[in-house]
Amino acid sequence: MPKRRDFLKAGAASTLASLPSWATDYTPLDDKKTVKEPLREIPIVRETDVIVCGGGPAGIGAALSAARSGAKTTLIEVHGCLGGVWTASLLSNIIDHEGKPSIMKEIIERLDTSDAQYTAKKYDAELMKWTLEQMCKEAGVEVRLHTRVTAAYQNKNKKIDYITTESFSGREAWKAKVFIDTTGNGELAARAGCGFDIGEPNTSRVQPMSLMVILSGLHENDLVKAGYVKGNGKDGSPTEPGKRKLHAEILKTGIDASYTMPSFFVIRPDMVALMVNHQYNVSSTDADGITKATIEARDEVNRIIEGLRSLGGMWSNVRIVTTAAQIGIREGRRIHGIYTLTKEDLIKGAQFEDGVCNVKFTVDVHSLIKGEGGGYSNSGVKMKPYQIPLRSLIAKDVNNLMMAGRCISGDFFAHASYRVTGNAVPMGEAAGRVAAKAALTNRLPKEVSWGEV
After folding, report:
1. For residue 91, which of 183, 182, 184, 210 has the smallest C-alpha distance?
2. Over the stretch 65-89, which tens digit does the pLDDT of each residue have?
3. Are 204 and 166 in contact, with CB atoms under 8 Å apart?
4. Cβ atoms within 10 Å of 144's Cβ, excluding its own
5. How far is CA 369 from the centre of its chain?
6. Could you give the angle at which helices 421-440 and 102-113 cross, rounded to 10 degrees?
7. Nearest 5°: CA angle at 93, between 231 and 310?
C-alpha cells in the first residue's frame, strides 16, 4: 500500500483528501540519491501553429513575425514581463540596432512615441514592458507569463511532439507544428535533445555575468560635466575615459571592483542605469552558481554605491532604486544548427544567400577571469560587417525546432559579436517568418527557403 509523504503533517488531512493520488502517494526509496516521480496525466492546454519559448528581444521578434504571417502563435515567458534582458535584467541599452528594419525599427519608433527613451541606447525598462505587451496584443500573440519550460518530447520523426511547463497552474503540456527557442540559454533545445557547446574553445570558460542597477540622486548635467557620459539627451553615452574615471572613484572607497570599465546610461535627466560588476566563471546551467553570483553581485553593487555616497560631492545623494530581477547572462548554450557561424566568417565579412541579419558589432569578450584585466576586448579578432545565415537558426538534431538570439549555432568568437540585442530581434523575426510558413504549409523549417518569406 503506497504511503503518504512522511513530511506532511496530520493536521493537513483535509487538504490531502482533496489532492490527486499522485500528489499524496509514493513509494519510499530509503537512502537512495534519486526519487521516482509517479506517472501522471498532464493536460494539453494548447495546440497551435508556432510556440515561441522565451519572451526576450529574440522571442518578441519571433512571436510578432509569426503571428503577423498568419500563424496561430503562443509566446511562453518565465518572468512576469516581456522583454527578457531588456526588462527583467534592466539592460537599458540596445546595441547594434542601427539600420535594422522592420520590427527592430518599429520597436524603436514605438519607444520614441511613448517617451520611453532618449535613444535606443538609453530606454526606460518599465515603458519597454508596456510597449512590448501592447505590440503582442495587437498582433494576436497569445502570451503566457510566469511559466518555465521543463521538458520536450520527440516523436519518431525527430520532431518535438509536445513540451511541458511548470507554472502557477501546475504542469501542463503544449503542442505545436513548429517551436522556436529564444530562451537565451537554449533551454528548450537542450531538453529536446539537441547538441550544444558552451564557452571558450579548449577551456570552456564563459563570459562573466553582470547585475544592472537603476540609480537616483545623480543628474545628467553633473555626469556630462565630469566626463562620465558624452553629452545631454540624444548625444549621451558612456565614454571610455569616463569608465576608467569611475573605476578610479570606486577604488578610492577601498573596493576592488570586479569590473574595471563600469558604464553609466542616462535614461532620464534624473534616472541613471549603471553596469558596474562582473561575476566570473558562472555557468548558465548551474542554478546554485547563478544564485551565488546574484547574491554576490547585489552585495557588491550596494557596497559600491554606499562607498561612492561616502565620497560626498556629486555622489552625496546617490541611491539604488532597484537592481535587476535577473542577473545579466552573456553566455549560455550555443545550439548545433545546420550551419555554424565561425570566427573566420567574421574576419572575412561573410555574406550568405540566406543571410537574415546584418551584424556590425565587434567581437566583445568580457574578461573571463579578473586577472585578465576585468574589462573587455576583441580577443584579437578583427571582424568586418557580416551576415547571419538562416541555417544557423535551424536546429540540426530536431526537425521542427528553430533558434534565435544568443543560443543560435555559432562558435565562441562569433557569439561574442552577434549576441547583442539589436541582432536578436531580426534573428527572431526571420525565425518567426520561416516557422509560420513551415507550419501553415505542413513543411519543416529547413524545407522553407529564405526567398519565400
Report:
1. 210
2. 999 999 999 999 999 999 999 999 9
3. no
4. 18
5. 22
6. 120
7. 65
